[in-house]
Amino acid sequence: MLKSFAKQKNIWMTPRKLRRVVDQIRGKGVQEAYAILKLMPYKASDLVLKKLVEATHNAAQAHGLTLAQLTVVEAFVDEASRITRFKPRAQGRIYKRLRRTSHIAIAVGQA
After folding, report:
1. CATH topology of domain 3-110
2. Widest distance between CA atoms in the chain
């Protein structure tokens, strides 16, 4: 089976927000996934759409496959490192806030 990947690391968005978008396109045809992502109201859908376009272009370059032949074989989001931020609180105290980041990987393959 021919596969092409697109990955991005250290996205400044929580994995939970990205996973709810990625779960919608896993296993679908690429044309259907495009339509779903364009209509979603989330910011995460723009990032996932960008990676999906990259993966399809990689498949076209490497294997000569068209959009009609491709499906989203794998799509997953992993948690990356957390960035620590501090927030001042009352009476000179400080609270730690963790900014979560993510890694995303999308693979498209022949149907």
Report:
1. Ribosomal Protein L22; Chain A (3.90.470)
2. 64
Q: What is the crossing angle of helices 15-25 and 30-39, to 10°?
A: 130
Task: Output the tens digit of pLDDT for each of the chain's 111 residues.
Answer: 789 999 999 999 999 999 999 999 999 999 999 999 999 999 999 999 999 999 999 999 988 888 888 999 999 999 999 999 999 999 999 999 999 999 999 999 987
How far apart are alpha carbons 69 and 65 in whole angstroms? 6
- Confirm if 3 and 66 have CB atoms less than 8 A apart: no
Instruction: Note the pTM of the prediction, 2 decimals.
Output: 0.88
Question: Which residues lie below 8 Å from residue 100, measured CB to CB, with a gap of 6+?
Answer: 14, 15, 79, 80, 82
Please, what sign has the CA dihedral across residues 42, 47, 48, 52?
positive
Indicate the DSSP class of residue 13. Answer: S
What is the residue extent of each domain of the chain? Answer: 3-110
Distance separating alpha carbons of residues 4 and 59, to the nearest angstrom: 5
